[in-house]
Write a structure and sequence with these properties.
By secondary structure, the chain is α/β, with parallel strands linked by helices. About 45% of the residues lie in helices and about 25% in strands. It is built from five helices and six strands, in the order E-E-E-H-E-H-E-H-H-H-E. Helix 3 (about 105-110) crosses helix 5 (about 140-155). The two termini are about 15 Å apart. Mean pLDDT is about 90; it is low at about 160-165.
Length: about 160
């Protein structure tokens, strides 16, 4: 199963594509879509959409796992991230991908075994699980790979939050 993991954002969208077959991971590609701060929001959203569509076309994932939004203080930033997340969901739906969403706690639990793990623990285990030569940069990319790993481990579970099947 080829899984596209997404850590949504407006400035940086982390992404990672893995193949999970017979309980084995193979990393196909990973990176980030970055939009400049001075760019107008509609132009940033269009850039994210276009780059994500190209990633989907190139790697042909079957499923997409995306992190659920959660924000505490800055509601304006949360709204902009929600807009970017909507673009990601639209691209996945348009491509006919099966999609699931996971909370940060679910991702940490699946990767580290502890839902309150620190970011550095997640990055270290993503690097080890996927046998990467170095920790993925930026952190959003490591988060996207962690989301893909989480989906591989729990995507067939009844607990997974699917949008469509």
């Amino acid at each position: 199963m080829i899984i596209l993991g997404i850590d949504p954002g407006l400035a940086i969208v982390g992404w990672g594509v893995i193949d999970y077959t017979n309980t084995r991971f193979r990393t196909l590609a990973y990176g980030s879509i970055q939009t400049p701060a001075g760019m107008e929001t509609p132009a940033r959203l269009l850039a994210i959409y276009r780059e994500l569509k190209a990633i989907i076309a190139k790697y042909k994932p079957e499923q997409m796992a995306i992190e659920e939004l959660f924000f505490t203080k800055n509601i304006t930033t949360g709204i902009r991230v929600a807009e970017a997340r909507g673009i990601v969901l639209m691209a996945g739906e348009e491509a006919g991908l099966t999609m699931a969403e996971y909370t940060p706690m679910q991702v940490k639990q699946a990767v580290v075994g502890y839902g309150l793990a620190e970011k550095q623990q997640v990055i270290a285990l993503v690097t080890r699980i996927l046998n990467l030569p170095a920790p993925p940069k930026p952190d959003d990319t490591a988060d996207a790979l962690a989301i893909a790993i989480c989906h591989a481990h729990s995507g067939c579970s009844r607990l997974a939050g699917y949008y469509n099947k």
